[in-house]
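Researcher: Batch entry, complex prediction.
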Amino acid sequence: YCKYGNFLDALACGDELVHKGATPTVATYNTLIYGFCKWGKMIEARVLFFHMLKKDLEPDLVSYNTLIYGYCRVGNIEEAFHLYDEIRSSDCVVPSVITYNTLIDGLCRSGDLDEAQRLKEVMTCHGFLPDVFTYTILVNGSCKMGDFSLAKDFFDEMLLEGLEPDCYAYTTRMVREMRVGAAYEALHLREEMVEKGILPSLITYNVLIDGLWKSGDYEEAKHLLQKMVQGGFFPDCVTYTCLINYYAEKGQLIEARKLFVDMIIRGLSPS
RNA sequence: UUCCAAUCUGAUAC
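Model: Structure tokens for the complex:
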């Protein structure tokens, strides 16, 4: 219920359990808090946080990380750091790599890449080594700010640190390659990950297909569409939008409409 | 016997 934003059902479910004699734990509250945070409802999340305190339940690291995540996603970096300071001065809760990754992502999303980099140094000083998440966040953040050279530096640094990129890391790097017009490098990365036994995801395919399509390499794009289906992934709304948008921009509305109809026939609902 | 299942961070189009 929480993940899908059905707060009322989630809360009703919790009430029912309480009536039946069950006791909510910190994890129960964390789940609810996460539900509100994910949908940007920070006031409600905070209310639950206080509710937990009132019930003599000690918020744990997950509670704090979840709130930090929520504040970052609504762009309230100040409040996120306020909570971080609270953890740091607390005796019972200690930050983790996840705390730092969440804050670094928040800084990247607010456009403060410099501060994000600084925090990466800070976490290292505090004995938390950046992991694949940290680097993926920074590669993505650099790309979003248009600094593709920095994005590559972060990816390379991750390898130098002996970390093994996963599907997310590879896909993020592929976005970078597509943005700098190096479609073939992106394709090469896909082969590399497959050789390492890492399966590309639907998003990986969407990134490649979108990039290839925009670069005019329709043959390769179609080839990948086939590979994607062979791999058990079916085109989703994003895949279709990539192609529809291309035709729409070129003014080929009949072609665009064909794809749109095809998408509906396949049972996909437009966003 | 130690299996499965519960809470926190990262990637794509518009």
